[in-house]
Amino acid sequence: MHPIERLRYVARAGWAGPAELGAEAAYALAELAETEPAALLPACRRLLQHNPTCGPLWWVAARLLAAGDALAEATRCADALEDDPTDELLEEALDGRRAVRHGGVAEVAAADVVLVGVDAFGPGGMVVDGDDLGLLEAARALEVDVWVVAGVGRVLPARLWQALTELARCPPSGPRAVVPAFFDGGGAVAGTVVGLGGVAAACGPAGVVSVAQALAACDCPDPPELVGRW
Fold it and tell me: Which of 62, 101, 111, 127 sits at a 20 to 30 Å CA gap from 167?
């Protein structure tokens, strides 16, 4: 399969989760960089236009654009995404705490901690699934601690986070408009940005840490090619 065709497949892979999209994109973009180096940046930008709320895609694109050897960096990115230890570290950190990932007020009231998975996480906000909004609101109302589950590639630096929010409010197929939800290339709701109120900790590949520590440990560069005007 030609790298461009593979990238088209990735862009439209609505069945895949963020980690799967990121790993597949890493290999496709590296292959493209080997055969058509000048096409790497346009391909990254096009891919992000179709999937603006997927943190691992921003992470992969930024790391490949900043790398001297795109193929070697792609392998590192894909390995990190596929071997993400976040879930195992989370289980260890819970250590008997009652945790809920789904449910309403009753479930939240009986919990010690509410777990919310994110597709992207940055200074001032996070991208969550629309189905988790009620859970998050209940946790905030009942003052139950929220732990964000932000695996490999989800934490973005300030400038990339800003680029994500700006791009996601401009669906590729429609006019620029500020909307409450973010959209994928086909017009379906892909995620919603919410603030970090109520978030007590973040769990990632380094374990459970404070929000400030998680943001400070971000391993994603912010190449100017991805933060300029789209």
Answer: 101
